[in-house]
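The methods section describes the discrete structure representation at length, but only in general terms. An entry of this sort, consisting of the sequence and the corresponding backbone structure tokens, reads as follows:
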Amino acid sequence: MNKYIFLLVISSVAIISCEDFLDLKPTNSLIADNAVYDAKTARALVNSAYSSLKSYNAGSAIILGVIPADNVFFGGSQSQNIELDNNAFTITNSAIVSAYQSLYSLINRTNWAISEIPKVKDETFETGEQDKLVGEAYFIRAFAYFYLGRSWGGVQLQLTPTTDLNSLGDIKRSSQEETYNQVLDDLDKAENLLPTDNASTRNLLQHSIVKAFRAKVLLYAKRFEQAEMNATEVINNPKYELVKPYSAFFEVPFGTKESVFELSATANNAGVSGSAWFPASGTPRGSYEYRPTAELISLLNNPLKGGNRNALIATRGSDTYGNLYHTTSPNTNPAYVIRIAELYLIRAEARVSKANPDFHGAIADLNAVKSRAEAELFSDNIDKSAILQAIWDERRIEFAFEADRWYDLSRTEQAEKVLGVKKDFWLFPIPQADVLSDPSLGGKNNPGY
């Protein structure tokens, strides 16, 4: 039986001179020798993609989504994170480079799964398993391209396996709209192949997770009517609800009805590290690198705005710290990819922003989230800009330490007003190694870099 080559990404991270151009390999160059040739290796390939998906959500997603924004300041010594905290993004920042490479590595794995798993003939596959594995690969690829699109804008869409550099071809950058369209196409394929919902599963891909993630992508793509429709389907699913009190979703070890997609962790398979959030003294002890800003602390402690979401912070001596990721060693905190609260706020924003706005419906959704938090409800004030701002402010508090605040500020064009960051820097720079090594990029980075 033929073995199909599965290839991994390698790319230089260091500052590289133009004289070294021929030695460089772009991030979407793929060289390795793993194989997919039976049910066991097909499962292993998709499981490795799941593992990488969790690693990204537990690491790079939080670093890029939280540190550049206004809810957290960085109290550590790593230069790459200090740059992010100061919104001084550079073309060789190792956190940015690592995130970019990790996403293309994830895409690489899914490309091989999509291409090769359907070719495998093995009677030990369970009924429908091959389709499910390919559907999972399509979803994970969609996730990776969404994060590339919202972080770097339009990117190169590598959709087929690559066996060597010569077979890469001429892959020009797509626009951000084209990138989001590719994400939506992959999600459609995933939904057609994945199983319908299991009543209790929160960490394995299925139809409702696809719909929830599609609603988020459609919001970014400004396709508001469709975003509303997909969000509504998930909200109407009795499997999900806003749990009370707010802290219940993270105080329970795993899988409350709040979670739509949550990547679990165990003692042997670590999740989000709590150690970066906890003070260096006391128990549990941490490095206290991620520290809530004074403004966020004030918002969370304001009963009208934060309500009972002040459970997200705790105090030890003179230190106030984030308490969402509340285990340290082992790091068994799950990565919260999407919660039902976000579907309410996605629908609220879509209802306000669509061609024929539904202000009352948007306010009802906003107040569902506020009511759960025991915060002051929004008055029935039919003013589009006021409602939108209230929704965006609510997102800031509701997902204070999750991986969205920087992206919310950039997509809603508030980053300059809130952080003083000019529009040219609302996207991260493409790693310099790729700009130098890939002729398809034409030596051009994102504006400003």
Q: What stands out?
A: The chain has 16 helices and eight strands.
